[in-house]
Amino acid sequence: xxxxxLSPIQQRLVFSVTPLxxxxxxxxxxxxxxxxxxxxxxxxxxxxxSKNGGFQTISDxxxxxxxxxxxxxxELALKLTSSSSSYGLTPNEYTYSIWVxxxxxxxxxxxxxxxxxxMLEHGFQPKVETFTTLISSxxxxxxxxxxxxVFDVMGQIGCEPTIHTYNCLLxxxxxxxxxxxxxxxxxxxxxxxxxxxxxxYTAVMDGFCKVGRSNEALELLEEAMEMGLTPNxxxxxxxxxxxxxxxxxxxxxxxxxxxxxxxxxxDHITYSTxxxxxxxxxxIEVALSIYKEMLKLEFEIDExxxxxxxxxxxxxxxxxxxxxxxAYQVFVKMRSRKLVVDPVGYELVIEAFCSxxxxxxxxxxxxxxxxxxxxxxxxxxxxxxxxLCLEGEVxxxxxxxxxxxxxxxxxxxxxxxxxxxxxxxxxxxxxxxxLYGVALKCGVVTRNKPVVCxxxxxxxx
Length: 461
Fold this sequence. Notes:
- By secondary structure, this protein is mainly α.
- The chain is built from 25 helices and no strands.
């Protein structure tokens, strides 16, 4: 039916909303097009650009528009919307609702609100789902005042909110840190005929955890369970986040046990949050047990946490030698996954191998560290030289000394003294003399001298 065949009221209805949609399309078009990178099919474009768009009824139009929105084909949905005025179809309640949903999905709740206003002006009664979609969109954008304005409109026209509507408001309040208001709203919900669900409690728990009030969040969890509600993994993860932020990672171990007892299987986020908290607050041995559990479950651990665990284990292995093997296994795992071991991690691994008397591995990783472009600290070189000399491996110690000098790390007295002493004992006099000369050039006065120098001193005396 052409536009000229529409009644005056129908024409006003079509043309009153079209400029609004066209303006919004122009405003948001570039953002949506580039974000989704969709390609128009020539057949579809030809169809929607035809006189009636190929639609016999408004139901046909609604069906096509809904399909595009559900498929996240927002560019095509906006193109179809901008052409709608030429089809001679009168938008109905469902058309407006789809448009509200579309603009909420592309993060433009202001345009969606204007469409809702048009809908109300023309006598349509939006369903609670339409109101809730718009309230949720405003809340996600942190625009709580506008969300409450929509909520007030619901009351004015007698549209009863659902628990999902309230859950959106609770999330919006907690997103802005207004947890006391969220808690008051929860109390009002419990006093009403609407029953809170687990998502209601999870939203308020999340708010408490974000402001360092995990104990109150735990009380809400217990209250929800007493009401017969079943916490899900998101509910528990909220508490793990709270414990992490408050420096209480060990409380997370008990919570993990409780989860399993309640037959709620922890997910990757659960374990990652717990591991991150344990590492940040220095609970390395407990973190190691969680790490091993994650490996059994085939959960991947990110590079940053692997480096933190590696450094922690290496430092602990100075006193607890049994952890050296665990540190090495973490190191090997990182290498097998092609994760980048940071310079501090490499140096601590080398130090750990030295303390564990795994000198070949220490030497191997020192050369690997240099090969990939890291510059080891003077202490790392000197420590490896010291241990090699103490083990009588002076030839290998020289293999450390040479790259040390090439990397511009000036040795202190200790490595010079150790090397010269070992070279004297092995009667490698020329090498000892060379090192003695290098020491003097570096301004280092060594306690030990080459044997030939000592004999010269004896003769002069």
